[in-house]
């Protein structure tokens, strides 16, 4: 009963991948929340006061207590609302693998996608090469540590799934924009099929996670 009475407010921005990660976790857990759309050029006083260090979104407010930084917020959600789906596996080794590949995506794969989109000429060509190499590494890691991944419903979705769909759900639109495939059924079939399965879930469309 105490959880039902909790007041949850999320300060986010519609185009932010990091904001969408938190929205998706809240929806998957069935947590009712109020959403505050932020204009990053004209931030609300509430955001600035509640997140004085970074003054960034996403910011979660739970019963008046602010929690900042998307990964910190995701961990907080999973530790506070212990209902299914849990964002981490119970097995410590599997949990470690999730943390490792989430970190790899955040540090190695996600940023190079942006460089591919915005760079031109030789810089863009080099970024495409780097991106393909990094996604080959990700593909092999997913295939080795998470074989036969099947997503039938919300209970099959965890932290790694949230990071994958929020980060790469838009890969086909990116391909159309730049004329280059980074994620495809031939070179990255595991990752490609993982995204395809996630995009079939109604909750993905409900949160408007970037998709094709």
From TrEMBL:
Enzyme kind, highest EC tier: transferase
Catalytic function, reaction form: RX + glutathione = an S-substituted glutathione + a halide anion + H(+)
Record EC number: 2.5.1.18
CDD domains: GST_C_Tau, GST_N_Tau
Domain GST N-terminal: 6-85
UniProt similarity note: Belongs to the GST superfamily. Tau family.
Name the UniProt record assigns to this protein: Glutathione S-transferase
Organism per entry: Brassica cretica (Mustard)
């Amino acid at each position: 009963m105490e959880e039902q009475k909790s007041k949850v407010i999320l300060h986010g921005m519609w185009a932010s991948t990091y904001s969408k990660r938190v929205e998706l976790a809240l929806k998957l857990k069935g947590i009712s929340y109020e959403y505050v759309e932020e204009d990053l050029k004209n931030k609300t006083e509430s955001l600035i006061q509640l997140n004085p260090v970074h003054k960034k979104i996403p910011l979660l407010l739970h019963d008046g207590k602010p929690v900042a930084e998307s990964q910190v917020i995701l961990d907080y959600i999973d530790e506070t609302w212990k209902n299914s789906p849990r964002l981490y596996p119970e097995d410590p080794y599997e949990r470690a693998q999730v943390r490792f590949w989430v970190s790899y995506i955040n540090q190695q794969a996600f940023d190079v996608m942006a460089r591919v989109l915005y760079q031109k000429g030789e810089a863009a060509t080099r970024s495409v090469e780097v991106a393909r190499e990094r996604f080959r590494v990700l593909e092999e890691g997913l295939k080795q540590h998470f074989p036969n991944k099947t997503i039938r419903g919300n209970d099959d979705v965890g932290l790694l799934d949230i990071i994958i769909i929020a980060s790469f759900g838009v890969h086909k639109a990116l391909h159309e924009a730049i004329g280059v495939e980074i994620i495809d059924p031939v070179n990255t079939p595991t990752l490609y099929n993982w995204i395809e399965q996630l995009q079939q879930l109604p909750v993905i469309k409900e949160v408007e996670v970037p998709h094709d």
